[in-house]
Specification:
2 strands, 4 helices
């Protein structure tokens, strides 16, 4: 029976002969502790659920980032189109003005106001007709 008591005391780090307890004996013996986790089905489900939620939020965040980029792109296009629209509206207003219509009629059609005298510059070697030819008339 004493052998069993000695074996138990050695395991505990107790020396019976000197009544001395060796505390380091246990620490030396337990340096290589194996850490083991027991995963219960509830923990596995919770980890899987948290992973799924994190993945879902990641996907939604990625979609938000992509949509923000797309919105910025379309806003830039909208700004360019609005600027072009303003330029075209200004040009339309210019084309409908009386001064522009008169200038184009004088330049392209050769029209003059009643009482005005037309002065044509003479260029050497070129003959400028005084009257515009009529439709179907051949000019020399």
């Amino acid at each position: 029976m004493q052998d069993a008591h000695v074996k138990r005391s050695i395991r505990a780090g107790v020396d019976i002969s000197s009544n001395y307890v060796d505390i380091d004996y246990e620490n030396k013996r337990s340096k290589k502790k194996k850490i083991s986790f027991k995963l219960k089905p509830g923990k596995i489900f919770l980890i899987a659920l948290l992973g799924y939620i994190a993945f879902s939020f990641g996907q939604v965040y990625w979609q938000i980032v992509q949509l923000d980029k797309e919105i910025a792109h379309y806003q830039a296009i909208k700004k360019e189109l609005l600027e072009e629209r303003q330029k075209l509206q200004a040009e339309i207003e210019k084309l409908h003005s009386e001064a522009y219509i008169e200038r184009e009629a004088r330049k392209k059609l050769g029209l003059v106001k009643p009482g005005e005298t037309v002065i044509l510059p003479a260029k050497p070697g070129k003959v400028i007709p005084l009257d515009k030819p009529q439709a179907g008339e051949i000019m020399d």
